[in-house]
Amino acid sequence: MNRAFPSICGCVGRITKFTSSTQDNPGRPFFRCETRGKVSEFRLCMPKVEVHENEIEKMKYKIEELMEIALNNKIEIQKSKVVMKCLVVYACIVSVASGVYVLY
Fold first, then answer.
1. Cβ contacts of residue 30 below 8 Å, gap of 6+?
2. Are 42 and 32 in contact (CB under 8 A)?
3. What distance in Å separates the CA atoms of residue 11 and residue 32, rounded to the nearest whole number?
4. pTM of this prediction?
């Protein structure tokens, strides 16, 4: 799986991807900030999660709004289908009634 990851650290240093060759994590990718150097310090360079939480909450709210709009649209479509069926039945009744009227 290819996950998107920033190429620039929060401290404006460049981020480099490495692959672990240890027995505990063979082949596992890890990232390091060239400015800070150490892997543990890289996490300190990254922006705080709280910064993104506000954006995530905004997106969740927008998704809820869109889901509500979609549900309302679905209800309106169902109502329109019922009206169309009623109109077709009415048209059939009128055409049959007018046909009977012509015969008499």
1. 17, 18, 19, 20, 39
2. yes
3. 12
4. 0.44
Residue 102 pLDDT > 70: no
8 Å CB contact between 19 and 27: yes
Q: What angle do CA 48, 20, 34 make, to 5 degrees?
A: 50
Q: How far apart are CA 38 and CA 16, in angstroms?
A: 11
Can you tell me the distance from the alpha carbon of 7 to that of 14, in angstroms, rounded to the nearest whole number? 6
Give the residue from 16, 44, 17 showing the smallest Cα distance to 28: 17
33, two tokens: 């900030």
Stretch 66-94: mean pLDDT, rounded? 95
Give the three-state DSSP class for 8: strand
